[in-house]
Amino acid sequence: MSALDDILSFNESFVKFKQYEPYITSKFPDKKIVILTCMDTRLVELLPKAMNMRNGDAKIVKSAGAIVNHPFGAVMRSLLVAVYELQADEVYVIGHYDCGMSAIDPHQMVDHMIERGISEEIINTINYSGVDLIEWLRGFGDVDESIQKSVDLIRNHPLMPKGTPVHGLAIEPNTGKLNLLSDGNVYLAEQGIAMFKSTEE
């Protein structure tokens, strides 16, 4: 039986026996926060538990390495939608130690693409079209620095409301310990910017 068959079989039972009922909530985050984190498998349940989050408490956006690659890419758009349309008042960028993105070798990844049937012609076309594929695939060396880079990009984004606290944290993927790297509230206070809080419920 394939993974898809397993999932669909379980889902049929899940719906039939109304196991979804404990998870019913609205589309608005109860704690008024949006989290940008990594897609690492170790964080699927660990991160919400380590933060005392339940279904409905937060919007969660995931990308490899919790990185904002482009100021006008899908990750940044998701954060802006959460803030402007879904009542999130704060942004949390939460990377983690022992992140796969810190060990990515972009040259090796391109080799793997070719091994799996992507032609060198396609690779060359992408490079000639103005995309530096190696740089686009490159990971990072230091997790803390990478988190701070994403935090800075979000804080200084021209479309992010200036009174939005943007926090940077790193989680230990084995213990769930959170290390605070940048407190968005302190940053706003130091900049003399009043923190925005929505009144909508």
Automatic annotation (TrEMBL):
- Extract the Gene3D superfamilies matched here: Carbonic anhydrase
InterPro entries tied to this protein: Carbonic_anhydrase, Carbonic_anhydrase_sf
MF terms (GO), sorted A to Z: carbonate dehydratase activity; zinc ion binding
Reaction catalysed by this chain? hydrogencarbonate + H(+) = CO2 + H2O
Task: Cite the EC number.
Answer: 4.2.1.1
Give the family from UniProt. Belongs to the beta-class carbonic anhydrase family.
- Protein name, per record: carbonic anhydrase
Annotated source species: Lysinibacillus composti
